[in-house]
Amino acid sequence: MASIGQIIFGSKAFCSKKAFGLLMYKLNACVHVCFQVSQGIVESRSPSTVGNLAEDVVLDCRFLSNSGNEQFNDVSITWLKDALSGVVYEYKSKAAQLQGQNTQFQNRAQLFSDAISMGNASLLLRNVKLEDEGVYRCSVNAPKVSGTTSVNLRVAAFSAPTFTRQADGSLFAQANKWFPQPGVSWLSQSGQLLNSSTQFINNTAGIMRVASVLEDPVKEDDAYTCLIQNSLVKAISEATVTGKIVMLTEKSRTYFIFSAASTKVSSLQLLFTVILVLSAIQ
């Protein structure tokens, strides 16, 4: 007769094998779906996108057959938005089908019709509004391709600052459109944090104007960096002060960096998760 210890050990081994088998079955199913070759690929190169309020934004969606680059003649494309009735945009039989379009997107959404045959199903959304924020789904049906991908659109307001020299010699930066409210900091050419003061002037609909003053003395022919950032966008502006105090010119350029991270989970990440789970079971 088996001892209690043998029974418990055998039960643990059985559970571990059962859990391992179940996880391997799910992994194999996922790998089969992820690498299934008969349906081609529908994907977004920017699954998380930040749109600038009142400007246009492109929601990226591409499709490709497994046979490589080819032209598609019979393509159906449907864009939907989660938790919203009707379609954002629908394309069938080489023409837009907008009978079921939600009124929120009337005269604001369109595809790049000349590029559809080359595998481009991206959506151009004009005059972005705060209520446009959400998850959009692009579904494509074409010869040798069938699938859906998603794009998470987040909406912010951002603009590059302009620089001027004030009467007291300080450097002043002003950006006319930001939302949500950002933080502002100034750096020297060597990367040292400098003293500054910033005001936020509310415009309509909570959009604000940013006015910031570099309080530390400004040196001739030195470069200064103004950072304006919120949870979605960072604006890095480099200003170089040149010339005499009276005849001063400022040259500046701005780079925008977006905190739009992909929400895709790769099969490699899934395999790593399975390994961690199996390690915990053992």
TrEMBL record:
Major place of residence: membrane
Entry keyword set: Disulfide bond, Glycoprotein, Immunoglobulin domain, Membrane, Signal
An MF annotation (GO) of this entry: signaling receptor binding
PROSITE patterns: IG_LIKE
Pfam families assigned: C2-set_3, V-set
Cellular location(s): Membrane
Domain Ig-like: 55-154
InterPro entries: BTN3A2-like_Ig-C, Ig-like_dom, Ig-like_dom_sf, Ig-like_fold, Ig_sub, Ig_V-set, IgSF_BTN/MOG
Any one biological process term the GO annotation gives: regulation of leukocyte cell-cell adhesion
Signal in keyword set: yes
Official protein name in the record: Ig-like domain-containing protein
A cellular-component GO term for this protein: external side of plasma membrane
